[in-house]
Amino acid sequence: xxxxxxxxxxxxxxxxxxxxxxxxxxxxxxxxxxxxxxxxxxxxxxxxxxxxxxxxxxxxxxxxxxxxxxxxxxxxxxxxxxxxxxxxxxxxxxxxxxxxxxxxxxxxxxxxxxxxxxxxxxxxxxxxxxxxxxxxxxxxxxxxxxxxxxxxxxxxxxxxxxxxxxxxxxxxxxxxxxxxxxxxxxxxxxxxxxxxxxxxxxxxxxxxxxxxxxxxxxxxxxxxxxxxxxxxxxxxxxxxxxxxxxxxxxxxxxxxxxxxxxxxxxxxxxxxxxxxxxxxxxxxxxxxxxxxxxxxxxxxxxxxxxxxxxxxxxxxxxxxxxxxxxxxxxxxxxxxxxxxxxxxxxxxxxxxxxxxxxxxxxxxxxxxxxxxxxxxxxxxxxxxxxxxxxxxxxxxxxxxxxxxxxxxxxxxxxxxxxxxxxxxxxxxxxxxxxxxxxxxxxxxxxxxxxxxxxxxxxxxxxxxxxxxxxxxxxxxxxxxxxxxxx
Length: 486
Hints:
Blueprint: H1 9-17, H2 23-41, E1 44-47, H3 49-62, E2 73-77, H4 92-95, H5 106-113, E3 117-122, E4 142-143, E5 146-150, H6 156-163, E6 169-174, H7 180-185, E7 189-192, E8 212-217, H8 220-230, E9 260-264, H9 274-289, E10 293-297, H10 305-320, H11 339-350, H12 353-366, H13 371-392, E11 398-402, H14 418-422, H15 429-434, E12 438-445, E13 451-457, H16 463-475
Helix pairs in contact: 2-3, 8-16, 10-12, 10-13
């Protein structure tokens, strides 16, 4: 048997239930893996190993593994609040005073209620603002397939942790691609649920009308298992939908015969890496060979998605970041001339450049005289983007696109070029703006052995269909079986 940390959730659950391994052995294997390789990756920024082993011992003593997540170790992105565990959003404004929440996020609470074991916190772009995990106050997370390259962002730590077997699964947040892009860069499965399908309570907000919580896993089956626990109405989050939660693991069966898959012409653009385009088109051909129908479609307002996203998101950032004032918690300063100077010093010292940039853009877009020209106009275009997808889904069942235009880029390659960084999510922001779900799965590797991601998106509440198609594709190809050599 290989190392337990390399197991999937489904494999680990089977071995735990059959007494082939213990939860302590599984947790210790992940701990050993983190301690042996994370200096090279910088994926895990807080280690909760003592408490994790204590929890594993209790679970082993009880000997009940009825739930597929019982005894399974996971990592949580550092914008999830865990009671009694430092949660900083990878920002100096909270790290300086080591903010420790007195409450638990709904997502991590549900996982722990199922018996899953938290190993610690993963690196993220500061308050999730970035596409490379380079804006973190803890430094960049590196890609397990090539440590000269980024892991993606903002959930780069979670993706690198799963991709390198530092944990069995991880959770992240996705605003404009922050689960799916890093999962694609690291050769994992990344899932963004429909807005309102999972709870945002206890997760530090970036853009409240776009943020969605989801898992990063080694397989689609594992993703379905985790979604069974994460999904559902939460009385602490008024944006969650009051819909029954199906058993997603029962959805991943059958075939794709008769399925209509849309290929939008706007997503195959100049500048796309030819190896990425080839791999994605090959994936479409593969699904067609299995009985699906490939249909060319148009999403005409795609060109405006990034610009719209980077008006609406900074506007919501401007509002959400106002709470970090250094008075109730977080970074403080000792000498200030007055209250305004105090705020100025706290936020100047506590926030990084990207957070400041988005606050200023958002505040400007919301200011008197510019609100109608920018924010209101962006919301109108957002509606047009949603209508594009709604019209498309009258003709097709799902939409197939690349996850990103190029494989993972080298660390520092986009320093000083925020616009180029914003364009990293060019294929993913539309789902965030529309509130629709999306999943990325590996569909190949480029010549320098970097993963290529295939992205599938569907109408609101179509999680079952996306998981089904992704699972069928995954099981009929070899890409999910490949692991980095660390």
